[in-house]
Design a protein that fits this description.
The chain contains 14 helices and twelve strands. With 387 residues, the protein is α/β, with parallel strands linked by helices. Helix 4 (106-116) links the parallel strand 2 and strand 3 (122-126). The longest helix is centred in the C-terminal third of the chain and has 21 residues, at 253-273. It has helices at 9-15, 57-70, 81-89, 106-116, 131-137, 160-170, 183-186, 221-234, 240-250, 253-273, 291-297, 313-322, 352-357, 374-385; strands at 74-78, 97-101, 122-126, 142-148, 174-178, 196-200, 214-218, 277-281, 304-309, 327-328, 338-340, 364-368. The chain is globular, with a radius of gyration of 21 Å. It binds pyridoxal-5'-phosphate. Pyridoxal-5'-phosphate binds at residues 80-82, 105, 107-108, 148, 152, 178, 180-181, 200, 202-203, 212, 214.
C-alpha cells in the first residue's frame, strides 16, 4: 500500500480521515452528538475525548481529511470562516502590524478595522505584487502578511511564492493565505511558502450552501499549539453534524471543482463576446492581466467570474434580478450558481472611495458558477442581457 501522503487528490478526498463505525462496521462513521465523554476513572479518558469543545471524533476526522488535501500537518476546524480569521489574529498583540492585500473579503476587512485597529494592531493595505512597495511597508513591528488569491471580487492574483520570499528576507513573519476561492484542489499555499492557510468551508468545501464553517491549517508546531488553545478557549467550534457534512462534502470536492472550472471558462468566454458586457474578469482568460501567473500558481482557474456591465448601477442591479437560474444571494462555491452586486451586497461596508480605488464600481457584478449545464447558464445570462 502506498504512503497516504502520495495518494492523488481524488483518493485523498474519498479516504483520508475515514474510519468505519466501530460497532456495526458501517462504511460511514457515526455522528457523535455527545457534548461530553465518560471518564474511565477520574482524570482518565479515552484518547482526546473528554468534552466536545476540546475534541470530537467527527471534528478530528474532518481535520485529518483536510490536512491531507491541503498537505498540512495541523488543521483546526471552527464554526465559520470569520472565526478562522479570528483565531489567527489572536496570535497578535497591541503594537503589532499587519500588511494586507488591497482587495479583501468584507468580513475580514471588518475584523481588521473594528477589532484589530481598536486593539492597537495597525493594518495597511497594498498591492502585494508591487515588490518595492511591499519591502518598504515591512517594519520591525510587522508580524503578518495577509492575502487572498484570487481576490474577492476583483479576482486579482497575488504571487504567493514571491510575497513569501520578500517576507522571509526581512525578519520572520507569518504569511497567511485565505485559500477559500481555490479550495485545496486548485492551490496549496503552504507549499508556496505560506505559514498559515485559512478557509471559509462555507464555500467550496461545504459546497452545498447548507452550512457555515472555517478551518485553519499550518505546518508550524508552535502556531498549531496556539490555534488549538484558541479553538477550545475561544470556543467557536463547529457541531459534530456540521463536521460530518463537511467530511461528506470533501469526497466530491475534486469532482465539483473540475465542473465549476470547466463551466466558468465556458461562461467567461461567452461573456467576452456578449454585447452589454464591457469587461470580463476571469483568471482563465488570456485577457486577464495575471493570466500567466494564474497558470503557474493554480491547477485551474476557479469558478468565480466578475463582470462589468455597460451602464450604471441600476442596470447592473436589473441584470442580477432578471437571472432565473442564478440565485440572487451573497456567498459562493455551492453547486448552484449565484449572482451578487458587490457595491450593495458583499462590499457595501467598505468606504466608497476605497471600494472604487480597487475597482468595485456600481456596475460590477460577481457570478459564482455552479455545476449545472453550462449551456443553460449561458442561456439564462443571454436572456437577462436582453440578447
Ligand atoms: C465567506 C468568506 C469568508 C468568511 O467566511 P464565513 O464562513 O462567512 O464566516 C472569508 N474569506 C473569504 C474569501 C470568503 O469568501
Amino acid at each position: 500500500m502506498k504512503d497516504k501522503k502520495e495518494w492523488g487528490v481524488n483518493t485523498k478526498a474519498v479516504h483520508a480521515g475515514v474510519e468505519p463505525g466501530p460497532k456495526y462496521n458501517s462504511v460511514n462513521p457515526p455522528i457523535y452528538m455527545s457534548s461530553t465523554f465518560l471518564h474511565q476513572s477520574p482524570g482518565k479518558y479515552f484518547e482526546d475525548y473528554e468534552y466536545s469543545r476540546g475534541a470530537n471524533p467527527n471534528r478530528n476526522a474532518f481535520e485529518e481529511a483536510l490536512c491531507s488535501l491541503e498537505k498540512a500537518e495541523h488543521c483546526f476546524a471552527v464554526s465559520s470562516g470569520v472565526a478562522a480569521a479570528d483565531i489567527i489574529l489572536r496570535t497578535l498583540s497591541s503594537g503589532d502590524e499587519i500588511i494586507s492585500g488591497d482587495d479583501l473579503y468584507g468580513g475580514t476587512h471588518r475584523l481588521f478595522s473594528k477589532l484589530c485597529e481598536p486593539a492597537g494592531i495597525k493594518v495597511s493595505y497594498l498591492d502585494l505584487n508591487n515588490a518595492e512597495l511591499l519591502e518598504k511597508a515591512i517594519t520591525p513591528a510587522t508580524r503578518m502578511i495577509w492575502l487572498e488569491s484570487p481576490t474577492n471580487p476583483m479576482l486579482k492574483i497575488f504571487d504567493i511564492k514571491k510575497v513569501s520570499e520578500i517576507a522571509q528576507s526581512k525578519h520572520p513573519l507569518d504569511l497567511v493565505v485565505d485559500n477559500t476561492f481555490c479550495s485545496p484542489i486548485l492551490q496549496n499555499p503552504l507549499e508556496l511558502g505560506a505559514s498559515v492557510v485559512m478557509h471559509s468551508t462555507t464555500k467550496y468545501i461545504g459546497g452545498h450552501s447548507d452550512l457555515l464553517g472555517g478551518a485553519v491549517l499550518t505546518n508550524s508546531d508552535e502556531l498549531a499549539s496556539k490555534f488549538k488553545f484558541f479553538q477550545s478557549a475561544a470556543g467557536a467550534i463547529p457541531s459534530p453534524f456540521d463536521c460530518y457534512l463537511m467530511s461528506r462534502s470533501l469526497k466530491t470536492l475534486p469532482l465539483r471543482i473540475d465542473k465549476h472550472c470547466a463551466n466558468a471558462l465556458e461562461v467567461a468566454k461567452f461573456l467576452e463576446s456578449a454585447s452589454g458586457v464591457s469587461r470580463v474578469i476571469y483568471p482563465g482568460l488570456e485577457s486577464h492581466p495575471d493570466h500567466q501567473l494564474a497558470k503557474k500558481q493554480m491547477n485551474d482557474f476557479g469558478g468565480m467570474i466578475s463582470i462589468e456591465l455597460d451602464g450604471d448601477g441600476d442596470k447592473a442591479k436589473k441584470f442580477c434580478s432578471e437571472l432565473e437560474l442564478f440565485g440572487l444571494a451573497v456567498s459562493l462555491g455551492g453547486v448552484e450558481s449565484l449572482v451578487e452586486h458587490p457595491a450593495t451586497m458583499t462590499h457595501w461596508g467598505i468606504p466608497k472611495k476605497q471600494r472604487l480605488e480597487v475597482g468595485i464600481t456600481d456596475s460590477l457584478v460577481r457570478l459564482s458558477i455552479g455545476v449545472e449545464d453550462s449551456k443553460d447558464l449561458i442561456a439564462d445570462i443571454s436572456c437577462a442581457l436582453g440578447l
